[in-house]
Amino acid sequence: MKEKSWKEVKLWKRWKVILLVLSSIFFAIFLGVLFLSPLKVILVKPSKTLSEEERLDGFVKLWDTVKNHFVYFDQVSALDWDKVLEEYKPKVKAAQTAAEYYNVLQEMMALLKDGHTSVLSPFFFNPFYRAIPPFQLRGIEGRIIITEVRKGDPDIQAYGLQPGMEVIAINGKSINEVLKEVMVCISASTSQALELKSYQQLLMGYKGTYINLTVKDAKGNKRSVKLKRKVNFHEMLCYLGIFCDLVESHYLEDKIGYIHIRNFITEGVIKEFDQALDKLMETEGLILDLRSTLGGNSRYSFSVAGRLIDGAIPGFKILINKTGKINESELPLIKTIKPRGKPYLKPVVVLVDAGTVSATENALVGLHYSKRVLIVGEATCGSTGQPVFIKLPYEGKARICASISAYPDGKPFVGVGIIPDVKVHPTIDGISSDKDEVLEKGIEIVKELIREL
After folding, report:
1. Span 148-162, pLDDT tens digits
2. Which is deepest, 226, 275, 354, 441, by most CB within 10 Å?
C-alpha cells in the first residue's frame, strides 16, 4: 500500500508539471490570437534599439490618432496637444532603446488622464516581464501595505512576511519617491485608479531579477528583504479566468448567497453566473462581489445584470462616439439592460473597489440608477469607453478612448467612479487579522434589507 501511494503521489507531481507546461503553451497561444505574434513580443528586450525613423513614425501616428479620436480633451483643458507634439519629439529622438521609447510614449499618454487611453508596450504582453515577488501591495490608510502573500513560498517563509506589513522603501528609495517615478507613466481617469495601477507596477520586472525592500511590521520593527521576481502562470491564467472558474459562489450565513465574478472577457461568464445563481435562488439575499472585476464585453455584463431584473431598465448612456461604429445622428444613445431567464428579485448588495472597471461599470450604473442594487465599498475605477486601437513598433499597441459614457440621466462616472451608497475602506488591522471588512458590512446591510421586506 505504501509503495502504491508513493507512486500515485509521484505520478500526480508529474501531471502537475505537464499541466503547468501545457498552461504556459496555451497562454502563449492565447496572447498570439489576441495580440498577434507572441514570439516577437517575447523576444523584444528593453535594450532593443529602434531606428529614429521607426520611433518617429510610431510617435506621430499615435499623436495624430489622439488628435482625431480622443473625446476627453475638455477634461484636460490646460493641455495643448499641439505643443505636446513639439515637446515630446526631441524625447522620442533621444530614446533609442525600446524601454526608453515606450516610457516616453506612456508618459505622453498619461497627460490625457484617461484609463482607456494608454500605450501598451511589448513588455506588457510578455508574461516573463510581468513577474513580481510573491505578494500583493495596496494603499491602506495612506500607507503601502502587503495585503496578500503567496502561501508556501520559501521567500515568504524565510523573511516572515505577513499581510499587514508596510513597505517603506524599494531598492534604497523611499516608497513615495518610487511611486512618483511610476505614476508619471500611468494612464488613469481617477486618483483611485492611478494608485491601484501604481501599486501593481511598483514590484514588476523580468522573471528572475531581484528587488530589495524595506518593510515594517505592526510593532514598528524594520527589516530588509531581497526577493526574486517570479512568474506564477497559474495565478496569471486564473486572473483572466483561464483554467479557473470565472465565477465563485457559495452560501454565507443566514441564507445569504455570495457570487464573485473575475471578469467579463469571455461569454463563458454568463453560463457560469447562471449556474451559480440557479443554486442560490432560494437564498433571502445576495452579495455580488465585483471587487477587482476586470471589464471586457458589456454584452456579457448586461446579460448577468439581466438575471437581477424582471423588466427592462436603462443601462449606460453614450453621449459621444468617434469610433465610426455609431452614427452621430443616433446619439445620445441609452443602452438597455433586458431581463433574461428566471429573475432573482431579492435584495442584492454589490461590493466594489477601484478594480471595478469598464464593462463591469457599464452594467452597474444601470442597476444603480434603477435602485435595483445597493453598492458597498470604495469608488470604482471610473474608466470606460470604446477605444480605437493602433499598432506601434515591435508589437506595442495603443488604445485611444473614442466614446463618452455616463449614467442614463447624463451624470458622469468616468473620471469620478461609481460612488458607493455605503463607503467602507479596508483597514490595516483588518488586513492583519484576515478580516474582509467590506464583505462584513455587505452582509450586515443585506440582513437589514431582508428584515425590511
Report:
1. 998 889 999 999 999
2. 354
